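Private note to self, pasted from the team thread so I don't lose it. Backbone tokens:
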């Protein structure tokens, strides 16, 4: 890592941020409209299916971790996540404008993880933390926006089940948005597509 690295955004950074936002926004939309929505219907018949909701939630955190891992500058995690949510909303998300609330909460939470190391650490530890943290505050907002969901969890599994339900969001984020996102971006970087970014040079050095 360069000691005097500039955190000023270049046109290349902005292009990458836009690309991540569009790709993640499409993934968010597919997860919302074509995975979650059908599962929600099935959960009314088979309550155990509701467990799949927090287990897949890490998919909605990848905008932040992917953008931060590629661009490696302050604000990348927040804007990658928020803009991804904006794209999802514009494309017709089942959740409507509320996705912007999630985008802010998730983006800020992941941003905090990279800020802890002053934007100088991008490994499995920092990526895992950036994937884990968003799972906590979103449940606070979720309690106010979708109280019936949380009451149903309590009625079905008790408060211990509620704690597990909340924690599962973070574990999903750690695995999907943290570990798997880093793994796949590293693999993609081997193709040379990120050679102009620090991630591209870093991965090539390990070959």
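Design output:
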């Amino acid at each position: 890592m360069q000691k005097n690295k500039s955190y000023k955004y270049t046109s290349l950074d902005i292009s990458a941020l836009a690309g991540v936002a569009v790709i993640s926004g499409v993934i968010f939309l597919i997860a919302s409209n074509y995975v979650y929505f059908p599962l929600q219907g099935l959960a009314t018949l088979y309550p155990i299916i509701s467990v799949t909701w927090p287990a897949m939630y890490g998919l909605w955190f990848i905008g932040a971790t992917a953008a931060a891992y590629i661009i490696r500058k302050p604000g990348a995690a927040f804007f990658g996540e928020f803009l991804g949510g904006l794209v999802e909303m514009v494309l017709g998300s089942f959740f409507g404008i509320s996705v912007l609330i999630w985008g802010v909460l998730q983006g800020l939470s992941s941003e905090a993880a990279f800020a802890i190391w002053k934007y100088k650490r991008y490994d499995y530890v920092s990526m895992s933390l950036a994937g884990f943290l968003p799972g906590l505050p979103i449940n606070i907002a979720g309690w106010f926006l979708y109280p019936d969901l949380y009451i149903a969890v309590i009625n079905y599994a008790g408060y211990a089940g509620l704690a597990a339900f909340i924690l599962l969001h973070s574990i999903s984020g750690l695995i999907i948005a943290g570990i798997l996102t880093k793994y796949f971006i590293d693999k993609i970087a081997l193709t040379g597509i990120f050679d102009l970014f620090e991630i591209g040079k870093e991965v090539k050095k390990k070959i």
